[in-house]
Amino acid sequence: MAAAALLRRIPAARAPPTALMAARTISDSTAPLTIETSVPFTSHIVDPPSRDVTTTPAELLTFFRDMSLMRRMEIAADSLYKAKLIRGFCHLYDGQEAVAVGMEAAITRSDSIITAYRDHCIYLARGGDLVSAFAELMGRQAGCSRGKGGSMHFYKKDANFYGGHGIVGAQVPLGCGLAFAQKYRKEETATFALYGDGAANQGQLFEALNISALWKLPSILVCENNHYGMGTAEWRAAKSPAYYKRGDYVPGLKVDGMDVLAVKQACKFAKEHAVANGPIVLEMDTYRYHGHSMSDPGSTYRTRDEISGVRQERDPIERVRKLILAHDLATPAELKDTEKEIRKEVDDAIAKAKVSVAFSVLFLVSL
Amino acid sequence: MPMATASSSLHGTAAALHGVGAAASSKPRSAAPVARSVRVAAAARGSGSARARGGMVARAAVAANAVAAAESKSGGHELLLFEALREALIEEMKADPTVCVFGEDVGHYGGSYKVTKGLAEMFGDLRVLDTPIAENSFTGMGVGAAMKGLRPIVEGMNMGFLLLAYNQISNNCGMLHYTSGGQFKIPIVIRGPGGVGRQLGAEHSQRLESYFQSIPGLQMVACSTPYNAKGLMKAAIRSENPVVLFEHVLLYNLKEKIPDEEYICCLEEAEMVRPGEHVTILTYSRMRYHVMQAAKTLVNKGYDPEVIDIRSLKPFDLHTIGNSIKKTHRVLIVEECMRTGGIGASLRSSIIDNFWDYLDAPIMCLSSQDVPTPYAAPLEDATVVQPAQIVAAVEQICQ
Fold first, then answer.
1. ipTM value of the model?
2. The whole model's pTM is what?
């Protein structure tokens, strides 16, 4: 196929290793492709979107690249933490990449995103760069929060990424406040407020949802359900773990959070709904490979078989790799090359961050 | 009891307040303790505002004999404290479309203390928002809206209810500017009535300034007269920092003549209420009136107390306070907070750190009792500082 021949030039046409996440110029081909989501959407008091998702070869390759970059960053963070270059709390996102990447594909930088502490990859998805991320994790001045925040406090104001919050649940009212400002200014944009299955039980979510529904705010509450609130399985913390139904009078959608195309479709649907009608709840069925944080081995409350089972059957990157190969959009070798480039990109960023300036105490009270 | 002659004593206090202040550059927020007063720019305002306010002056807290209203070219107008707050809100909301108000019953009901009466009709339901009883979330929403460039004013119907929003106030409101490496400003105003009222019961008689004072990144002021209520409210709304404005349940009906022209009060400045020589009495909010009542008795007994309404609870105006201590060498703090961990405790500590060498006597601090405020009137009266105790304390200090 002409398209395939075009695509095989991808390695040469690919953006240089220092490209930021925002540069989506990996492939020329924007010929539409329709792919079915892994499972249909389950919905609550709303008609679900179709499970046929429109994408393009370029987009799929971008998905592969972006998710692989995120995966690599998180694994590198693991090593840095064990080497004591990252201290304190460090919550890794590997396994959940499809949520960050799919969401970004459905929206614009004028829409807002806010999340809790598992924020490194969302920062990247919003256009953050690797050096700032690693520098922040290592507490350097070049960090995205100038080293003042740490792992749990990544923000990117110019990309409408509002963090980065340590006390879970509190970010949801903040998110509804962002949505309020969007409505106040008649912006026609929406806010995605992310939280986990643990924080889903916080009362302030219901308060915020009630207010959002009353005032018809463009709030989208996204439950990243990775099935464990730290060490507590969802069934032990929630009488009703059907998080997408928790909105009661607010519609909801349950999404396979390991399927980046499903995430994209759901977020697109949610944004249209929120801007026109007010709040909606999305539940992303996802999974984290690491424990809750680096202090948690992640194996005392779940079996290694479960973890490896998900990795084998539902890994978001592998799903996209299979799609790319099945549709002949790249060869296995090309994808491997991409992964090698990504590894190098991450290693280079770490090297840069390692030598970046640390702090003197003079900076304690000044910015 | 103190409130009956409030309006007449206010004219006296208003007279002492006003001198011409100097405009100066607005400074970015500093967390380090500073022994200097900071003046708000007369004309400048934070980014996002298109207003130029030529001709308006931030009035410094200087003892003077001129009466504020007499300085006012058009004679001034008399109003009650809650009306002064409302006037400030109306002026700021007219001038800046990003200013909005969140709170319970602030809109259609007009506000439980009438501070927002009529605002919903004037500005509409999107700018004056009736919230459900959900302090945690609507305070958080205020912070989120501020992150995105609006200037919300969040009302706690009673300050005590804001304890439900403590996490939002502390971790988000106070800290986001810092943890984001300066990316976000939170120009929010959190306000509401607090303090011991008239037999309102323990849970409705709280002094939250004790609890909030440690929150890094938060600024706190307490108003006590119609004049400073309007001036502080305007300044708080214009500030790029999160400001908590403490009003008092018993002071809303104080009457005073305030200038017709526009003015603001400097957030970080204390107010010289009565200059004197013998002892520096530091107070704020309702206790100011107990102090002034005690001052009458003290003057009759031959004492000359200097009374300063500290107004700025965080940061303290150590410049004004220090100058006073250097003159009188004796300090009495009169506060409504409880003895443990109140503003008085922090102020005492600050004075010891900064002005130890100027003290001729130990600092005395009169505070409320460490008890939940009882319902029965005599007991309630006994929990707060009364003028007789203030007189006795000054006599003791000045021995």
1. 0.81
2. 0.83
